[in-house]
Amino acid sequence: MTRLPVRKTYKLYIGGSFPRSESGRTYEAEGQNVARASRKDARDAVRAARGAFPKWAGMTAYNRGQILYRLAEMVEARTSEFAELASGRDEVEQTVDRIVWYAGWADKLAQVLGSSNPVAGPYFNFTVPEPTGVVAVLAPDEPPLLGLVSRVVPALTGGNAVIAVASETHPLAAIELAEAIATSDVPGGVVNLLTGHRAELAPWLAAHMDVNAIDLAAADGDLPELERAAAQNVKRVVHGRSDVQSPWEIASFLELKTVWHPVGQ
Amino acid sequence: MTDLERTRERTPVPKDWTYAPAPEARDIVRIEKRYGHYVGGDWIEPSETYTTISPASEEPLAEVGQASVAEVARAVDAARNAFGNGWSEISPSERAKYLFRIARILQERSREFAVLESLNGGKPIRESRDVDVPLSAAHFFYYAGWADKLEYAFPNRRPRPIGVAGQIIPWNFPLLMLAWKIAPALAAGNTVVLKPAETTPLSALLFCDVLRQAELPPGVVNIVTGDGRTGAAIVEADGVDKVAFTGSTEVGKAIQRELAGTGKRLTLELGGKAANIIFDDAALDQAVEGIVNGIYFNQGHVCCAGSRLLVQESIYEPVVEKLKRRLATLRVGDPLDKNTDVGAINSKQQLEKIQELVASGEEEGAEIYQPPCRLPEKGYWFAPTVFTNVAQSYRIAQEEIFGPVLSILTFRTPEEAVEKANNTPYGLSAGVWTEKGSRILWMAERLRAGVVWANTYNRFDPSSPFGGYKESGFGREGGRHGLEPYLELE
Amino acid sequence: MDAVALEERAASLAKRSIKREAKVFALELAIRMMDLTTLEGQDTPGKIAALASKAVRPDPSDPQIPAVAALCVYPNLVPTAVARLEGTGVKVASVATAFPSGQSPLEAKLEEVRWVVDRGADEVDMVIDRGAFLSGRYAKVYDEIVRVKEACGDAHLKVILEVAELGTYDNVRRASLLAIAAGADFIKTSTGKLPGAATLPVTLCMLEAIRDVYEETGRMVGMKPAGGIRQAKQAVQYLVQLHETLGVNWLTPDLYRIGASSLLNDVLMQLRKERTGIYQSADYFTVD
Question: Which residues of chain B have a CB within 8 Å of the CB of A74?
Fold first, then answer.
């Protein structure tokens, strides 16, 4: 008698837990029923991200770097599972290496992007980069794992909390990634992953007043409309790249704060 | 009298509350009876050996090698081979991953290393456990991240490794100094021959096992043990392209003389006689903590120790009072006891040097204070000591004692504080205590020291550059700047 | 005050490793220093009676375990407490002055103090007017404490600063010195009614103020952390901090109290573990 496997249920990842969509809907992708996130799920994800942001941003950069490195460890450990859901081992290995690359940036950003500025007066003046806050990301359809990670991890490295909409055609890799995230000491709510129809979810995220930045590179549909919606709270609109790794991908989600202090008696 | 005292019978108070011994277990670390040198990824039989001991008890711990000129040459060859045959060609991201592995393994084996460090060197387990080992792992983690990002560290320059680095480290932070040397060197693509200090070889030798676990390619890191003769052999070896030395100013100068005209790159991290400056608006209790931390941390065996206290005259009395009271609560004892604050002096030689300088202090007219302290029979010990009535010209105010001895001088104005602080051939570090931000920055601008600590002391971080001005050496370790000594920047 | 350095020093002291005899000494001292507390709207004489027996005999199966220092209750329960603790040596401490907010007219507060003292309270735990303090009316805060101290008569006075509302360590130090100058026998961290009550850095800050007063005038004032101390391990940390900041002379319930309720059973569990060598279960200790 052949053994009947116990199949996985593919759910969303919000606030560190794996809920089904509050709408109860699913759609079929890669031969599976996958949760189809609704605008309310997106709303809940933003709330979770906002709640988790202070803790993540308040950790030392070294600590964030270590946690991201552990995420790489967790992804590496699941290489065979990921390989089946992505385009193969190569994509997984590139993904792990990319996470490691970004992990190593956490405690160096201030040195490369910040500065001490020689103002013309008896003042000490310095500029530090800080995370912008809650970042929404639309991940590209392909490559399903590397594309998602290339957009989400730079935002995390800088200290942001993220809501990402996974590849619509190949969402299973994203859910596998959620499982890796959940086991890597990333605090709940720092990363939230929604599966579903990108075109349905994007406008709600683009218009959400508590989202600070949005990556629209993979948006389909009416891009100018999304950018107009983003203007309502002056969101930082980013068109990120998944085919490169660069500190500038981190910088797009950072603010710069400059502080003055007199030097004297 | 409070009403309480008037109306109540007092409950008797205890005579004392001694904390029971709380020793960290030794058996977590395995010490071999005998060690060779670690060359080309393997152990080689040493031609000559000596015994390394625990300075707290004088107990012999192991036999270690005294590397000869020939053995050093073998190590340098191994490093050259490893450099030429791949280490500098391995993709930088792969180099990074080796360093990340080393960092993680150090974290996993942290208790072993902490115990060994305290046993062999004499520092309290609380320090090795909470400071030395975590910082060492962090240092590897930090530089691992730079290995494949060098082009961002130096705008418009093409960074290339130098080749083989010969590195000689001191006995005060054996594992941490090893991390400060090896991590940036490897991140930049170099290979290394490193000699730990004569009295503290064991953590470096245990580190070789970490290298084995990390599967670092053979010859990338080579470790040879021995005294000053071995160090000289490394400095003089032809195959060494760059020398990094941390130790006394005297030896540093000798090395600089030796390398003159050879074109070899050099960085030196030498001695110091730091001024710890307290203004009358400082948060006093915290400042006293800072003074204590500045000079009694690691028994004062710290190049950047705040060994000269410059107190603003108007608060001299309360500071000295509080300091003496605080000294009485310092626990001197077994380094492996978790409650020990001040451990053993690293060696007989160092103890004699401290005793000599302290005697000179008394002869020259300074007033000595030592809290009542029961020192163990065996081992090398010195009670925390404070000198008041110290003049700038006394030996104890000029020479580096490298022990738990603080000299207190006074000043009246900020300008005078700056003048006194800078009046030394050294320039490694300084401390400033004041609640006024603008004054901190004003002092920092004027102090001729590579590291200025304000309202804190003895803080280290892999991302924070460390190094001296003047005779405290040149070159920086830590931070983006710490990469520069290990790169050719075209 | 420098907050970073203060917190570091507190953390460093908290790492002391106290073993065996030294630990037993600390745990027994912690019991002798405890103000066993119940301050609930739902307190009844029945509850007080039960707590009073616990206070006198914390562990019925072990007569060696000492009694606590005091029972701390709301004014209405003072008569029951006094009756139950008559002749036992355990004191009755009453909160007063519109505890916990302090937001009542001075006359009402003084009347409350006189009321509890008349009915036998040995100790009064008052709250300072944080509203006045934070709006800079220090003289008002001072004056109230002086008046309350007068109203206390022979009862001894603990002044609750409510550190969680004061915001900064500088304010805690300022409030400590103010309360001591106005006649406090003890300064106390909190009412226990707000989250985040006693913490090691805050108590260190207060002990340093006490130390400064002692060094300057010879007067010895007591300290009481209250709120959030639930584990024996914490109690030992507080005592280590006390020992290393003020010395052995303060290691007495006359100068240090711990305001707690569930702490007692955890201390009893630890003591039994030290005696027997095995880890304990809460099932074996009475809940009163």
Answer: none
Task: Please report the number of interchain residue pairs, chain B to chain C, with beta-carbon separation below 8 angstroms.
Answer: 84
- Is C5 within 8 Å of B8 when comparing Cβ atoms? no
Helices A198-207 & A39-58, crossing angle to 10 degrees?
Answer: 60
- Verify whether the Cβ–Cβ distance B2 to C221 is below 8 Å: yes
**Residue A152 in tokens:** 């989400």
Q: Are C48 and C73 in contact (CB under 8 A)?
A: yes
Chains C and B touch (3+ CB pairs under 8 A): yes
Q: Chain-centre distance of CA B136, in angstroms?
A: 11
Catalytic residues of B, by residue number, are 269, 303
Contact C75, C94 (CB under 8 A): yes
CA distance A218 to chain B (A): 27
Distance to chain B for A83, nearest Cα, Å:
21
Q: Which amino acid is it at B354?
A: I
DSSP string covering C232-279, please?
A: HHHHHHHHHHHHHHH-GGG-STTTB-EEESTHHHHHHHHHHHHHHSS-
The predicted-structure confidence for B217-231, as pLDDT tens digits, reads as follows: 999 999 999 999 999
Q: List strand residue ranges (DSSP E) for chain C, in order.
A: 34-37, 70-73, 91-95, 123-127, 156-160, 186-188, 222-224, 258-260
Domains contained in chain C, CATH given = 3-275 (3.20.20.70)
**Which member of B4, B21, B126 has the closest CB to residue C156?**
B4
To the nearest whole angstrom, how far is the Cα of A229 from the nearest Cα of chain B?
Answer: 36
Q: pLDDT below 70 — which residues of chain B?
A: 1-11
B96:A104 CB<8 A: yes
**Rounded distance, CA B285 to CA B435, Å?**
13
The pLDDT tens digits along chain C (288 residues) read 899 999 999 999 999 999 888 999 999 999 999 999 999 999 999 999 999 999 999 999 888 899 999 999 999 999 999 999 999 999 999 999 999 999 999 999 999 999 999 999 999 999 999 999 999 999 999 999 999 999 999 999 999 999 999 999 999 999 999 999 999 999 999 999 988 789 999 999 999 999 999 999 999 999 999 998 999 999 999 999 999 999 999 999 999 999 999 999 999 999 999 989 999 998 889 887
Would you call A255 exposed, middle or buried from its count of C-beta atoms within 10 A (0-12, 13-18, 19+)?
middle
Six-digit token pair at B275? 């001024």
Residue A196 CA neighbour count, 13 Å, CB half: 26
Chain B positions in Cβ-Cβ contact with residue A97 (cut-off 8 Å): 93
* C-alpha–C-alpha distance, residues B343 and B296, integer Å: 9
Say yes or no: B372 contacts chain C, CB-CB below 8 A. no
Nearest-angstrom CA–CA distance, C18 and B339: 8
Contact C20 B17 (CB under 8 A): no
- pLDDT at position B11 is 64
Q: Which domains does chain B have, with CATH numbers?
A: 26-270+470-488 (3.40.605.10), 275-454 (3.40.309.10)
Q: Which residues of C are catalytic?
A: 125, 188, 224
A255 in contact with B at a CB cutoff of 8 Å? no
**Yes or no, beta carbons of B463 and A108 under 8 Å apart:** yes
What angle, rounded to 10 degrees, do the helices at B174-187 and B133-146 form?
10
The answer to whether the CB atoms of B438 and A264 lie below 8 A apart is yes
